[in-house]
Amino acid sequence: MSDTAAEVRQRIRGLLVDLFGSDRFVNGVPDGVSLREAGVSSTALVSLLVAMEDAFGFEWDDEVQPEVLRSIDSLAGHVVALRN
User: Is the distance from CB of 49 to CB of 69 less than 8 angstroms?
Assistant: First the structure.
């Protein structure tokens, strides 16, 4: 069964809460906003990507396009596309 984009976005938000230790920051970040511009450091982004691999059961391709890593929306779209 494949996850919908909304379910994947929710799971990614949960992973971000785990990384930041609070939902206070995460709740203020709209799905389409650049995570970098929202204040997610490059080390936190790498931690998120590793957590996503574990949560969704895939490995990031070395050739993934940078725009895939931009926002919660783009990350969720990538996961959904992998599952279809």
Answer: yes
Give dist(CA 76, CA 16) in Å, integer: 13
Structure tokens belonging to residue 2: 């494949």
The dihedral over CA atoms of 52, 62, 83, 19, expressed in degrees to the nearest 10, equals 10
CATH value at residue 21: 1.10.1200.10
Give the pLDDT confidence of 12-36 residue by residue, as tens digits: 999 999 998 888 888 899 999 999 9
Amino acid at 11: R
pTM, two decimals, is 0.91
In terms of residue numbers, what domain contains 40? 5-83
Q: Provide the domain count of the chain.
A: 1
Neighbours of 64 (CB within 10 A): 11
Q: What is the structure's pLDDT at 1?
A: 39
Residue 29: DSSP 8-state: S
Cα–Cα distance for residue pair 71/84, rounded to 1 Å: 20
